[in-house]
Write a structure and sequence with these properties.
eight-stranded mixed β-sheet, 214 residues, single chain, 7 helices, globular, alpha/beta, two-stranded antiparallel sheet
Length: 214
């Protein structure tokens, strides 16, 4: 097993961030559940394998996920990366790939899981927010947290303002975590994260953000 399969639903900004690192050759396929996802066009334009498995063309979530699993298994990836994939995955899917699926969420989990996290964050008048990378389990946005990046929430922030700053951290944090997993420097056992920190990690992260923790 080697490489990653990336699942998207939209513009693919994290896909682009991953591609623009030394991970581009690790991308085995980009799969979208929407035919009009802009990220698929980016993937095609950069000669990546792509598949569209439109969820609304199946009678049930089970049928959709069965086809998704068939497509993923063709590539035998070490890791499945959810990058703006806007579908809740069922227990059968999650249990089959348990410990091999990661997601990034625009809040400091466990705070503000689910959709519209920046909106809820601004409404709550909290002082900090950020991004969380976590392993996916059968509870939405509740799997073991691998790493987080923190941003200050300004009193003048709109949800879009905050979301844009969080996205900047996502684009550094997600490729970093993926690289560490592929190098076997991050793994999970019995829902516990095992980390092997290297001397170069602090130098790399400090170059971009001093407020990323893993």
């Amino acid at each position: 097993m080697d490489g990653i399969v990336i699942l998207i639903s939209g513009r693919g900004s994290n896909l682009k961030a991953i591609y623009n690192t030394n991970l581009k050759n690790k991308i085995k396929c980009v799969i979208s559940n929407k035919v009009d996802a802009l990220g698929i066009e980016f993937a095609k334009n950069n000669s990546l394998n792509t598949e569209i498995i439109a969820h609304n063309s199946f009678k049930s979530r089970e049928e959709f996920e069965n086809q998704l699993m068939i497509s993923i298994d063709k590539y035998s990836p070490k890791l499945i990366v959810l990058a703006g994939f806007m579908r809740i995955l069922g227990n059968n899917f999650v249990n089959k790939y348990r410990g091999k699926i990661i997601n990034i969420h625009p809040s400091l989990l466990p705070a503000f899981p689910g959709a519209n996290a920046p909106q809820y964050t601004v409404n709550a008048n909290v002082k900090v927010s950020g991004a969380s990378v976590h392993f996916v389990t059968d509870k939405v946005d509740f799997g073991p947290i691998i790493a987080q990046g923190v941003v200050r929430v300004e009193t003048t922030d709109s949800p879009n303002d905050l979301a844009s700053r969080i996205l900047e951290i996502e684009h550094i944090l997600y490729p970093f975590v993926i690289s560490k997993i592929l190098l076997n420097q991050i793994n999970i056992h019995n829902d516990k994260i095992n980390l092997k920190k290297e001397a170069d990690d602090a130098k790399f992260l400090g170059k971009y953000f001093s407020n990323i923790f893993y």
